[in-house]
Amino acid sequence: MFLDTFVLLSANADKGFFDRLNTGDIIAQLGFFLILMLLLKKFAWGPLMGMMDQRAELIANEIDSAEKSRLESHKLLEEQRSLLKEAREDSQSIVENARKQGEAQRQELMTAARAEVGRMKEAATLEIATEKEKAVAAVREEFVSLSILAASKVLGKEISEEDNRALIEETILKAGEGR
């Protein structure tokens, strides 16, 4: 159509500018152009804009969803941090309690060991004293026997053993008190 217009314009070159214009064709082309624009608006531009609006709404929803997810993950991260902090504090208190219990058990063991050593010391002292008494008694018996034997040989006569024993024990006691 545009080619036809140029051909007509060149054929009518001797006419004036407005005389060469074919107003009927211009009006027809404008009409067809307006109809084309209306059809494009109704069948192409409208659905295209609808799809663009849907796409914009979908993108806005995804952005909102991503923002919600980010906020939720931030909240979860803070919860995890607080739980980790609580776990650290709990573990420190457990370690501190274990240390205190260990110290208390050590003190109990030390006290029990000292008490056992004291008891063993007392038992040993008592046993030593008992054995000493037994040894002293055995030495006295031996001394009495030897004294009786010596006295009987010195005197040359026999004294009753009981009289002799009483005499020697009395002498030993007097010697013990003199110390």
UniProtKB/TrEMBL annotation:
Main location class: membrane
Record protein name field: ATP synthase subunit b
Record note on quaternary structure: F-type ATPases have 2 components, F(1) - the catalytic core - and F(0) - the membrane proton channel. F(1) has five subunits: alpha(3), beta(3), gamma(1), delta(1), epsilon(1). F(0) has three main subunits: a(1), b(2) and c(10-14). The alpha and beta chains form an alternating ring which encloses part of the gamma chain. F(1) is attached to F(0) by a central stalk formed by the gamma and epsilon chains, while a peripheral stalk is formed by the delta and b chains.
Family membership: Belongs to the ATPase B chain family.
Keywords for the protein's UniProt record, in alphabetical order: ATP synthesis, Cell membrane, CF(0), Hydrogen ion transport, Ion transport, Membrane, Transmembrane, Transmembrane helix, Transport
Record-linked InterPro entries: ATP_synth_B-like_membr_sf (IPR028987), ATP_synth_b/b'su_bac/chlpt (IPR002146), ATP_synth_F0_bsu_bac (IPR005864), ATP_synthase_B_chain (IPR050059)
UniProt key word DNA-binding: no
Protein's cellular compartments: Cell membrane; Endomembrane system
Membrane topology: Single-pass membrane protein
Molecular function terms, GO-annotated: proton-transporting ATP synthase activity, rotational mechanism; proton-transporting ATPase activity, rotational mechanism
Highest classification ranks of the organism: Bacteria, Bacillati, Bacillota, Bacilli, Bacillales
GO cellular component labels: endomembrane system; plasma membrane; proton-transporting ATP synthase complex
The gene coding this protein: atpF
